[in-house]
Every structure is written in C-alpha cells, then in structure tokens.
Amino acid sequence: MNGKKGAFIVLEGIDGTGKSTLSRELADWMREMGREVVLTAEPTKDWLGLAVRRANEEGLDPLTESLLFTADRCEHTKQIVQWLDQGKMVICDRYFGSTVAYQGAALQESMGEEALPWLVLINSPVIRRPHITVLLTSDADLAMKRVGDRGALSKFERSDYLKRVQENYLMLVDRFDWRVVDSNGPLPEVFEQVKRAVQAYV
Ligand code: TYD
Fold first, then answer.
1. What span, in angstroms and rounded, lies between the C-alpha atoms of 75 and 127?
2. List of domains in the chain
3. For labelling alongside 149, which of 52, 82, 140, 156 has CA 20 to 30 A away?
4. Ligand 1: which of 10, 11, 12, 15 to mutate, judged by most atoms within 8 Å of the beta carbon?
5. What is the pTM of this model?
C-alpha cells in the first residue's frame, strides 16, 4: 500500500480512435505525477482473452462471443480490484462498454432492441464500476483509414459496423456518466482533453 487511493479509468471507442496510444501516454503522465499505474486491456492476453480472439477468427455466434468477452472480463475484474486495493491507478483499454457496443451491433439483427439491455444485464454482476470512462469518438471513415494502415481488418473494423458500434456507445453515455472526447483532431489536443477528464482522480 502506498497510502494513496487507486482509481479505475477506462478508455472506450471504436477501433482507430487512438485508445492504445492515449492510454500509454496517460500512464506515463500519471507515473510522472508519482502514481503507481497498471496499464491493462481487454480482451486480455490470458487464455480466456485468447479464446475470444479465436472465436472471432472462427466466426462463432455473436452470443458465444458476448459470453466469452464477458467471461474474460469477469476474471480480469478480480485482478483490477486487487490493483485498486493496492492503491494503484488502473488504466483499462476497453471494458464492458465494448461488449455492449460491439456485440450489441452484431446482436441487434437477431435480438433487436433486446440486445443492448441484455448485454448490460449480463455484465452488471461481472464489472467494477469505473471511476471514470472516457469515450473517444471519431468519424468512422477516418477511424477506418487509421486501422487500415495497421494491415488486415477484422470483421469488427468495417466502417458500416463501426458506425453502429459508435451509435451504441453514445447510447450509454448518460446512463453511465461517461465523458466524451472527440478524437478527430491532433493527438496532443486529444490527450489534453483526456487528461482534463481524468485529472480529478490522479
Ligand atoms: P482491440 O482493442 O483492437 O485489441 P488488439 O489491439 O489487441 O487487436 O480489440 C480487438 C477487437 O475486439 C476490437 O475490434 C474490438 C473487439 N471487442 C469486442 O467486440 N467486444 C469486447 O468486449 C472487446 C473488449 C473488444
């Protein structure tokens, strides 16, 4: 224990909004401020996280994927709680909002309006409520161009799909009291806004 209180900070957003870069920059900034930081992400690199990636590659049912992402999160949350109890800052690149937004977009076809509430419901006993969630928004076509530079696209990275994912994310903002930061501008400006959103917890 370092005598300081931990805080759980989550970055969400469609692919190509700069979450990984921004979470690394946030971690560096917090370390400079003397905080102990754990930088983590979902899907995890544990076997449940690898199972999720495999389910995606093998084109399994979106219901199966939803349950796998949620199972991965269940075990991950236990680690997160331990880090918080140790007074650490935990920065998580994606959390339950990703399942609600992404699998919601896939399940809307078969489940319609029931999809999002069901995903929120199955996640509610699994999660620890973040102190703050920053949703990075972007023009879906621009985000696509950014991921396009990274090589082969997964089915989650198509522009029409990402547009629906972002709409789903936006539906969660008021309910879960998220901060929205537009990530279309230059990275240093976006970073300043993200810092402003989280600084009360550092
Ligand atoms: P991503 O953060 O892009 O991981 P990596 O950089 O290691 O590839 O996550 C992989 C994909 O998984 C991404 O397109 C979003 C998707 N995803 C979901 O569909 N649901 C979820 O619950 C999570 C955590 C991710």
1. 10
2. 7-201 (3.40.50.300)
3. 52
4. 15
5. 0.94
